[in-house]
């Protein structure tokens, strides 16, 4: 096997591999000779089958196995001899195409092909200690716990019909049928039957709930309301609609009780225990939000420390994944690039930068993890699979079997675990200071922060 490098351009490499036909034939003869003592053919005693006869029967399949093995051997030789890390699976171009491969299998030609690879960039990680991180910390206030308690109590409220002729008031529940129209024509998704509207909840578009205050059971009413400009359906966003409403019932809520009985309704012993559980839940939410912001700061710091060429195919694949999600989101929302005050070309340029950042940081984290021997244990992967299975009640066994048989899916679970472990390692090296913040500031979206 002769391997010659023919291209070294950036992160692209090409190699020409040639295996003389005589070498392939020699290896085939050895394998056929080894088969003599193993195969059983009618008319021949064990071990007495002529090699020439075996060649007529099995020569083509033996040659195919040898050719496949040689491709693997060549790939390994290229990686080992050149001390490279592949970014993608090698791309193979066989000389002569299908006809050339047929000639090789028939023993009439040398086996020659080109191996095109993209390699991972080489870079020094350097000293990563001393990265400054500001960790936002919000205190779980009693008022927040009380608000959650009240929300839970409201969801458990019993509603009863108000006396005949009674008007709907704020906090009442109105049961309605309605048909929504734009320019006098019903629109898709604008019809509802036996819909519960809790007045004052803000669950419906602005103006709808407010105009139900004062209605009575049996009343029919036409309500005009305008969809918000950022409504998820672009065909309705900003449009004014009329709703032909039939009021079927007006109900009043029972007394809002926050007591031990409320706690028992959710499987807890007492109100104090319920408050404790809610407080812990809010604390976990705050901790997760703080973690996201800390991780974002850390990744921003890493992104500023490294600049190197990225494997073109790897970058293109990541961009295609990002862009497919963008197109899917826009299609679902019915919005266009014009609605976002941009163009498709400008949006692609922005998202290509996002894809480049993801690829770069992925390579940096992988290098840091490898150099510091950070690994994901099988126990951690198993826990992730179990957690995933729990998300599909009644289908746990099917989910488990899917991951057992699909290594690529397991790799997708392993990747974020590995990333988080590398992040934890880096945070131990960083200078982390805590900054007290309000709940609203802690939970503020990163996009909102960037815009402010």
TrEMBL record:
Localization of this protein: Cytoplasm
Catalysed reaction, written as an equation: [protein]-peptidylproline (omega=180) = [protein]-peptidylproline (omega=0)
Keyword Cytoplasm annotated: yes
Membrane-crossing residue ranges in chain numbering: none
Domain PPIase FKBP-type: 171-272
Main location: cytoplasm
UniProt-listed Enzyme Commission number(s): 5.2.1.8
Keywords: Cell cycle, Cell division, Chaperone, Cytoplasm, Isomerase, Rotamase
EC top class named in words: isomerase
Family: Belongs to the FKBP-type PPIase family. Tig subfamily.
UniProt function note: Involved in protein export. Acts as a chaperone by maintaining the newly synthesized protein in an open conformation. Functions as a peptidyl-prolyl cis-trans isomerase.
Notes concerning its domains: Consists of 3 domains; the N-terminus binds the ribosome, the middle domain has PPIase activity, while the C-terminus has intrinsic chaperone activity on its own.
Protein name: Trigger factor
């Amino acid at each position: 096997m002769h391997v010659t490098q023919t291209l070294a351009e950036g992160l692209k490499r090409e190699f020409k591999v040639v295996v003389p036909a005589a070498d392939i034939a020699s290896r085939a003869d050895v394998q056929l000779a080894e088969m003599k003592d193993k195969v059983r053919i009618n008319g021949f005693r064990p071990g007495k089958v002529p090699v020439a006869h075996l060649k007529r029967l099995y020569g083509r399949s033996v040659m195919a196995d040898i050719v496949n093995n040689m491709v693997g051997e060549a790939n390994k030789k290229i990686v080992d001899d050149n001390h490279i890390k592949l970014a993608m699976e090698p791309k193979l171009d066989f000389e002569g195409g299908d006809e050339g491969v047929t000639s090789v299998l028939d023993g009439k030609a040398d086996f020659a092909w080109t191996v095109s690879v993209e390699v991972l960039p080489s870079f020094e990680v350097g000293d990563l200690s001393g990265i400054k991180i500001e960790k936002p910390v919000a205190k779980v206030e009693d008022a927040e716990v009380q608000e959650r308690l009240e929300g839970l109590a409201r969801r458990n409220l019993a509603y009863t019909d108000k006396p005949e002729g009674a008007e709907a008031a704020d906090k009442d529940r109105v049961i309605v049928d309605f048909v929504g129209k734009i320019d006098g024509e019903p629109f898709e998704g604008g019809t509802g039957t036996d819909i519960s509207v809790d007045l004052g909840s803000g669950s419906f578009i602005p103006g709808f709930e407010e105009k139900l205050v004062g209605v009575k059971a049996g009343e029919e009413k036409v309500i005009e309301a305008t969809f918000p400009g950022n409504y998820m359906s672009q065909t309705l966003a900003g449009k004014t609609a009329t709703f032909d409403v039939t009021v079927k019932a007006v109900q009043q809520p029972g007394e809002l009780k926050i007591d031990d009985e409320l706690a028992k309704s959710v499987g807890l012993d007492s109100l104090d225990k319920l408050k404790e559980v809610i407080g812990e839940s809010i604390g976990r939410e705050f901790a997760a939000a703080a973690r996201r912001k800390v991780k974002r700061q850390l990744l921003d710091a890493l992104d500023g420390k490294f600049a190197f060429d990225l494997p073109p195919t790897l970058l293109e694949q990541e961009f295609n994944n990002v862009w497919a999600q963008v197109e899917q989101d826009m299609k679902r929302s019915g919005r266009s690039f014009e609605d976002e005050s941009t163009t498709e070309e400008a949006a692609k340029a922005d998202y290509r930068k996002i894809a480049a950042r993801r690829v770069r940081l992925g390579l940096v984290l992988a290098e840091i993890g490898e150099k510091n021997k950070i690994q994901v244990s099988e126990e951690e992967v198993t826990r992730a699979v179990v957690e995933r299975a729990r998300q599909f009640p009644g289908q746990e066994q099917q989910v488990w079997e899917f991951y057992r048989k699909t290594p690529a899916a397991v790799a997708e679970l392993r990747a974020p675990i590995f990333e988080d472990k590398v992040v934890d390692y880096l945070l131990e090296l960083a200078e982390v200071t805590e900054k007290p913040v309000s709940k609203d500031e802690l939970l503020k979206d990163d996009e909102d922060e960037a815009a402010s």
